[in-house]
Design a protein that fits this description.
single chain; mainly beta; Jelly Rolls; 1 helix; globular
Length: 151
């Protein structure tokens, strides 16, 4: 059994800046506790930062730990793999303590809604059976109607 504290310093995971708008940092909790069934990250979104539009091959759970944020769900239109039309179908406000389940292959974005404060959440990426790899596909978009490419 391994123990970690989400507020302790260290265990930072390098963040790919192509996956976010604005400044984001994250702590890799799963590597610290040696979890093999899920990836667990404590993610901090600074000053209105959020994820780019994306979907996961496995399910995901978000637990808000600080500030105010949102989760936005989108529907895609068109058959092109790299560029297509989108429409937001749902926007969920997240505040400290809120927990949300995101099914696999749901096109979405999440992050801070306040340009002057930090929003953070724990992201639990539930890994698919050992025969398949957990994959996230990221997109460039205007968050309104258009996706222009895979990042």
């Amino acid at each position: 059994m391994k123990k970690s504290n989400i507020y302790a310093p260290g265990d930072q995971r390098k963040v790919n800046p192509n996956w976010f708008t604005g400044r984001v940092h994250m702590k890799d909790v799963s590597s610290k506790i040696k979890s093999k069934e899920q990836g667990i990250y404590h993610v901090y979104f600074h000053n209105g930062a959020k994820t780019k539009l994306h979907w996961h091959s496995g399910n995901q759970v978000l637990i808000a730990t600080r500030g105010s944020g949102s989760l936005e769900i989108f529907r895609r239109y068109g058959t092109s793999k790299n560029s297509f039309k989108i429409k937001r179908t749902e926007k969920i406000t997240l505040k400290e303590g809120d927990t949300v389940y995101i099914p696999a292959k749901t096109l979405h974005t999440h992050g801070s809604v306040n340009k002057k404060k930090i929003f953070s959440h724990i992201a639990i990426n539930i890994l698919p059976p050992r025969s398949s790899e957990y994959k996230t596909t990221w997109y460039e978009s205007d968050f309104k109607a258009n996706v222009s490419k895979v990042v």
